[in-house]
Amino acid sequence: MDLDFDRKHIWHPYSSLIDPPPVYPVARAEGVRFFLEDGRGLIDGMSSWWCALHGYNVPELNRAAREQMEKMSHVMFGGLTHEPAIELSRKLVDITPAPLQRVFLADSGSVSVEVSIKMALQYWQSQGKSEKNRLLALRNGYHGDTFGAMATCDPVTGMHHLFASHLTQHLFAPAPRPGFDQPCGDEDIAELRQVIEENHNQLAALILEPIVQGAGGMRFYSPEYLRRARALCDEFDLLLIADEIATGFGRSGKLFACEHAGISPDILTLGKALTGGTMTLAATLCTDRVAEGICRGEAGVFMHGPTFMGNPLACAVSNASIDLLLAGPWRERVNAIEGQLREELAPLADSPAVRDVRSLGAIGVVEMHEPVDMKRVQEALIERGVWLRPFGRMVYAMPPYIINPEELSQLTTAMVEVLAAEG
Q1: Residue among 305, 382, 258, 369 nearest 118 (CA)
Q2: In the CATH hierarchy, which fold is given to the domain comprising 3-57+329-420?
Q3: Strands (E), 76-208
Q4: Looking at 225, 272, 396, 401, which residue is catalytic?
Q5: Annotation says 243 is catalytic
Q6: pLDDT of 292-342, one tens digit each?
Q7: Would you kindly state where each structural domain of the chain is located, as residue ranges?
Q8: How far is the C-alpha of 244 from the C-alpha of 258, rounded, in Å?
Q9: Nearest 5°: CA angle at 126, between 122 and 127?
């Protein structure tokens, strides 16, 4: 493998071509591991950025891809349809909260957020309320790297401050304060209420990550806060957009994180694990109210349509992934992972270098007091047979659900040994 060419010509995520970071050549992947060209196998502790929930080289997903490839890998979705898209949309309507009945199949998580924003804006335009053209987002939130999505990320922690002057200026409320197991009193929702009360005439929607704020800080917050946020949207006539790109398909211990609060959004975005990490696909679901409201407006149609929308190959693999998930003991597996992460990462709470240790579902987070030297920490983890990618002050694990206790112990032991040494 020509790593010199890679260093000189290939731009990796959030990297410099002047001083490129090290990259590790992967030859193949199987189960919870991928194998480097030198033969080393690394336990993937983050499911390839949270999407490979079944692990790698999954027979059921491979078979679905092969069978669909023999029929057609792609056909345009404009004016045409096909069984994989119909089946996938039926599954998504069945497993998401009941009011979500309409499905828009996109091609990446960021695009699904763009679609959700356009749905909200076009809905209010169709209602003759074009002044409702701004969004409200939460501090520490993260929703993607495209321009519409960037504008709803935290301006400070969302990694996009360089583009601030080019982004639509939305409103932000403080990040939820109460932790997952804590009550949410009137004082905890007061600032969100104030922002909505003062600006609801210009607000189209509140966009948030339910229960788990991901790349903005790996924070877990109270389901009661989410319930109260839903109630505020109803009271002041805002749409609620739930970004479940990271949390969908069981990651938080519920099939969808909204279920922790027993609420349903008006618009829901999905991605990442939708295909089990096999290829890119996303979906944006909405209620009848939103869909019909849009289509009764000036345009008469929803103004969006990606080239690879409803890709048959991706839809076929998504169907197989959802079937595999629902047919297996995913809930028991995720609960077991949560318990083991909680127990085995607990010793780090005593390290002077560690600010907090927390777990929820198949997510384990170690928050340091100071930013992590990613290169040094990552190399130390690799020496122990583990792949993680820290960011900022966070070192976190989001392993595939199929990880067994021994593999998970190898992952947590590596985290404890490496991070305890930071103190």
Answers
A1: 305
A2: Aspartate Aminotransferase, domain 1 (3.90.1150)
A3: 100-106, 134-138, 171-173, 203-208
A4: 272
A5: yes
A6: 999 999 999 999 999 999 999 999 999 999 999 999 999 999 999 999 999
A7: 3-57+329-420, 62-327
A8: 8
A9: 120
Residue that has been written with the tokens 């709803």 in this structure: 152
Residue 302: phi and psi, rounded to 5, are -85, 130
Query: 205 by DSSP, 3-state: which?
Result: strand
Query: Residue 158 has what pLDDT?
Result: 61
Q: Nearest Cα to 239, choosing from 354, 105, 127, 387?
A: 127
Q: What are phi and psi of 189, to 5 degrees?
A: -110, 0
- Those residues whose C-beta lies under 8 Å from the C-beta of residue 69, and which sit 6 or more positions away, are 313
Query: Choosing from 145, 188, 243, 266, which is the catalytic residue?
Result: 243
Residue 82 corresponds to which tokens in the numbers above? Answer: 């096909």
Q: What is the pLDDT of residue 53?
A: 97
Longest Cα–Cα distance in the chain? 62
CA distance 105 to 87: 12
The CA distance from 326 to 328, in Å, is 6
- How far is residue 238's CA from residue 251's CA, in Å, rounded to a whole number? 27
CATH code given to domain 62-327: 3.40.640.10
Instruction: Check 44, 56, 132, 142 and give the catalytic one.
Output: 142
Residue 123 designated active-site:
no
Q: Are 100 and 286 in contact (CB under 8 A)?
A: yes
Q: Say if pTM beats, i.e. exceeds, 0.90.
A: yes
